[in-house]
């Protein structure tokens, strides 16, 4: 009898717990996930390539913005992405870029049409406005 009581209590608590976490827990970045802090510490960025990175072709990625201290997803007002080849001092064509917020996911965007004009080391400069502060995070990547 005591066993059954404990079991039902556990089921009840687990249900309450899962309902609670769905309702108001903010998205928290997994501890093992790599990312990069913005220059002034306004945000923490994670960039995941979904296509590429390729050279002389278009690549795609997801951009996830987190609070720099707590690594919780944060709301972002605007996003701009500039691929820059620092070693050679040039950028690339950006007319095919399309940045779209992911519905229902705070601070998450998809970017399509990233065009890296040549192979080699690129700095992907991601500038975002968070609570009126403009800051830039740079993601280093090598295109084959
Ligand atoms: Cu170059």
Counted up, domains total 1
State the end-to-end distance: 66 Å
Q: From N to C, what is the helix and strand string?
A: HEEEEEEEE
Give the DSSP E fraction (strand runs of 2 or more residues).
35-45%
Please work out how many helical segments DSSP would assign.
1
Map the helices and strands.
Blueprint: H1 2-24, E1 36-37, E2 44-51, E3 58-66, E4 78-84, E5 98-101, E6 108-115, E7 120-130, E8 133-143
Antiparallel strand pairs: 1-2, 2-3, 3-6, 4-7, 5-6, 7-8
Bound molecules: copper (II) ion.
Copper (II) ion binds at residues 85, 88, 90, 118, 120.
Keywords:
single chain; 144 residues; alpha+beta; 5-stranded antiparallel sheet; 1 helix; binds copper (II) ion
What does this structure look like?
The protein is an alpha+beta fold. The chain has a single domain (about 30-144), classed as Domain of unknown function DUF4426 (Immunoglobulin-like, Sandwich). Helices cover about 15% and strands about 40% of the residues. The chain contains 1 helix and 8 strands; from the N terminus they run αββββββββ. The chain has one helix spanning about 1-25; strands spanning about 35, 45-50, 60-65, 80-85, 100, 110-115, 120-130, 135-144. A 5-stranded antiparallel beta sheet has the order 1-2-3-6-5, with no helix packed on it. The termini are far apart. About 20% of the residues are buried. Mean pLDDT is about 85; it is low at about 1-25.
